Amino acid sequence: MEPAPTPAFPLEHEVVGTVDRVELVTVRLPFVAPFAISTAVWTVKEALLLRLEADGVTAWGECVADPDPFYAAETTATARHIITDFLLPLVAAGATLGELDRRFRHVRGNRMAKATVENALVDLIAKRTGRPLHELLGRPRARIMSGISIGLQDSPAALLAAVEEAVATGYHRVKMKVQRGKDVEYVRAVRERFPEVPLMVDANGDYTLADAEHLARLDEFGLTMIEQPLSYSDIYQHSILQQRLATPLCLDESIHDLDDAAAAIALGACRVLNVKQGRVGGLLESLRIVAHAAAHGIPVWSGGMDETGIGRAVNIHLQTVEGFTLPGDTSETRRYFAEDIVEPPVVLDAGGFIEVPHGPGFGVTVVDDRVDKFTIHRERLR
């Protein structure tokens, strides 16, 4: 297989300026309700935030890692180490984001940490020049389709109640988490009650190839896709499974960068891609993946990591890019937090769409008092 092409994007040519002050802030926000997937249950969102100051301008980046390694290998603690000791020393005034991206490649993996630094620098560049993020991405303002991710429920009845609320709210797509023992009958209950709703399931790697016959039972429900049914690191076995299913497979955790995406597409391991910019290394790598997928006719959507309003705003702007053709995991703030650290919150309009935030940078205002309220650790780096 030939290496995936790496086209240039407007964002690559943006120049990094001087930075006067750097802080790492860890916040812990209680979830409105516990969020469960096949590998873990979380009751709070612990987020590592990177705060930059320069010439009176404050910018932020959010790390999507969890405090534990149950979803991914990176954690807030490992990200803090990589950001502090390896990535920030590579940041130099006068370098372009493209040059910085190439420097970061010297550091293996640690893409969540890389995305944190890149996001904060992009926010700083945009605010200094008075431009919204979507403009830096070369895209006009747009309304963004909404999607909801419903965690594992204790019973089909509880799941139906959650889906009913989502449909009534106006979400364009419903995603439900599944695992062994909570799959076919749960999906059947939702499909019988909501025969027309765009529906997908996400297994977060809970199955093996030996479950192919069982997973094929999901074909009868007309699902938009089955997300990451096999191992979080696998591409090849997904290519075998996809041949046995009529329902499109979507890869998420297996896609760490453009090369992974190109391999998955070439092998026929999926018919849909989930791009989480905070997990694949940031906005630049996301743009490369989306462009490659579009060139090969593969639909892409933007995944979420239960971010605070900082990371959520980045994902909304990113979805203005051509190639994001399916509703993402972007839902209203109130589903996650009774009180977020930014204003305004994410809300759906009457048509179920989300408005791209106004203003320079990410377009949201970080409320310092709320950050202070939820902070569990803060350190000034330079």
Walk me through the structure:
The chain is α/β, with parallel strands linked by helices. It has two domains: 10-133 and 368-380, Enolase-like, N-terminal domain (Enolase-like, domain 1, 2-Layer Sandwich); 135-366, TIM Barrel, CATH 3.20.20.120. The chain has helices at residues 76-87, 97-104, 111-128, 133-136, 156-169, 184-193, 212-215, 236-244, 258-267, 277-280, 283-295, 309-318, 368-374; strands spanning 21-36, 41-54, 57-63, 143-145, 148-150, 174-177, 199-202, 225-227, 249-251, 272-275, 300-302, 342-343, 353-355, 365-366, 375-380. The strands form four sheets. A seven-stranded parallel β-sheet has the order 5-6-7-8-9-10-11. Helix 6 (184-193) links the parallel strand 6 (174-177) and strand 7 (199-202).
Set out the fold topology.
Elements: E1 21-36, E2 41-54, E3 57-63, H1 76-87, H2 97-104, H3 111-128, H4 133-136, E4 143-145, E5 148-150, H5 156-169, E6 174-177, H6 184-193, E7 199-202, H7 212-215, E8 225-227, H8 236-244, E9 249-251, H9 258-267, E10 272-275, H10 277-280, H11 283-295, E11 300-302, H12 309-318, E12 342-343, E13 353-355, E14 365-366, H13 368-374, E15 375-380
Give keywords.
2 domains, alpha/beta, 382 residues, globular, 13 helices, four-stranded antiparallel β-sheet, Enolase-like, domain 1, TIM Barrel
Brief account:
With 382 residues, the chain is of the alpha/beta class.
Shape: globular
Structural class: alpha/beta
CATH homologous superfamily title of the largest domain: Enolase-like C-terminal domain
Determine the N-to-C terminus distance: 44 Å
Biggest beta sheet attributes? 7 strands, parallel
Mean pLDDT value: 95
* Estimated radius of gyration: 20 Å
